[in-house]
Amino acid sequence: MRFEETAIPGVFDIDSDIFTDERGSFQRAYCADEWRDHGLEPVEAQSGISRNRAPATLRGLHVIPEHEGPEHEGEAKLVRCIRGRIFDVAVDLRPGSATYLAHITRELDADRGNALYLPRGVAHGFMTLQSECDVLYQFSRPHRANVERGVRWDDPDIAVPWPMQPEVMSERDRNLPLVAQFDSI
Ligand SMILES: Cc1cn([C@H]2C[C@H](O)[C@@H](COP(=O)(O)OP(=O)(O)O[C@H]3O[C@H](C)C(=O)[C@H](O)[C@H]3O)O2)c(=O)[nH]c1=O
């Protein structure tokens, strides 16, 4: 597998060879040894699949803010588009980070098989670029809805260059706070 750190320290582009033959193809999606060799937090506690019907569906920007105490321990996640194409976004919300509020964007494409690894404290969101887009997640910790927070997709202090106006979004996401309202995390 190939690991390339992005402009946000700790966020990595993940790629691996796709082996094709007359049956189709095979691609390695995760390797505990390689994660350890690169000093990345394992993402083996839970995985999930996000299925999205329509283009311009937006989910995020979600993060578990780093707090004192085990209850609010953050989560690392590996994000991979396994059907269609998504505009993926990572935003550094780690207090004191030299890249605090910086964002990176990536097109994750099921055919290309590229993925993005986000460490604790980095918010994640995406917008589908076509209909029928599925996203596979691997998480470092089980889901804890009660501690997950988020900031609004169109926060001017972050200024993500979304490719389209969102057409489909949850009420929760529509009403997320701006980072300025987001008590220190
Ligand atoms: C994320 C998650 C959700 N759920 C259940 C909870 C709800 O009943 C239902 C939908 O959850 P939610 O609306 O939080 O799903 P998303 O808005 O796609 O949330 C995700 O979207 C952004 C972009 C992320 O990066 C996070 O992984 C995650 O916050 O699935 C689970 O059971 N386990 C999970 O890990």
TrEMBL record:
Substrates-to-products reaction catalysed: dTDP-4-dehydro-6-deoxy-alpha-D-glucose = dTDP-4-dehydro-beta-L-rhamnose
Name of the top EC class for this enzyme: isomerase
Known EC number: 5.1.3.13
SUPFAM superfamilies: RmlC-like cupins
Active site, renumbered: 62 (proton acceptor), 137 (proton donor)
Domain of life assignment: Bacteria
GO molecular function: dTDP-4-dehydrorhamnose 3,5-epimerase activity
GO (cellular component) term, any one: cytosol
Gene Ontology process terms (BP): dTDP-rhamnose biosynthetic process; polysaccharide biosynthetic process
Pfam families: dTDP_sugar_isom (PF00908)
Chain's role: Catalyzes the epimerization of the C3' and C5'positions of dTDP-6-deoxy-D-xylo-4-hexulose, forming dTDP-6-deoxy-L-lyxo-4-hexulose.
Protein's recorded name: dTDP-4-dehydrorhamnose 3,5-epimerase
